[in-house]
Amino acid sequence: xxxxxxxxxxxxxxxxxxxxxxxxxxxxxxxxxxxxxxxxxxxxxxxxxxxxxxxxxxxxxxxxxxxxxxxxxxxxxxxxxxxxxxxxxxxxxxxxxxxxxxxxxxxxxxxxxxxxxxxxxxxxxxxxxxxxxxxxxxxxxxxxxxxxxxxxxxxxxxxxxxxxxxxxxxxxxxxxxxxxxxxxxxxxxxxxxxxxxxxxxxxxxxxxxxxxxxxxxxxxxxxxxxxxxxxxxxxxxxxxx
Length: 241
Description:
- The protein folds into 2 domains: 2-72 and 181-238, Endonuclease Iii, domain 2; 77-165, Endonuclease III, domain 1.
- The protein is built from 15 helices and no strands.
- It has helices at 2-13, 15-25, 41-54, 56-65, 77-85, 91-103, 109-114, 117-122, 127-138, 143-146, 151-158, 166-176, 188-197, 206-213, 220-238.
- It is globular and about 55 Å long.
- The protein starts with a helix and ends with a helix.
């Protein structure tokens, strides 16, 4: 029970941090627009405790995976550009490309729009990713304004940009904006982890995942953290490749 007790202790010990996140979510200009914002490990622990009480299989998973990661990231143009550069390449390749973009200061909208195609290709971007990067730069997204939009509005705004799909928009909402109740229903690792943890006969598709995840609201992004962590353990244990 040690890891579940850790979750309970962290949630209990950090009540002030959790209260702050409640106040932020309940501010007059945010009321009814967004739910909880995950700002600290204490918020993740609170969500994990709630999920464990609601669904014992999450509690069992937490026994195996231990404390969950916060996984908060910055928001803004650079984070989405980084996501675009990471598409369909290995983690190592994505890191190398991003390092080159940073080295030549091609990580803000004006720099992307001012750069020639040869300069962008020299930094490691394919022609398709150059098109996506320029589309993102030209979109003139109000990144501060995104913070005040509902989860659905955030995802709808981002997916209007070529190169940003639903999964990328959901991940941005979860980790760059800290939304507590967003879930990446099309994520294959989440689907497979759900199959294993809930002993389903086959991996659930996106539609079934949406139905299952309804029961995990308002902490669906914490449920995702549990399932991603559980997937890594189950992959090693069961030899999934």
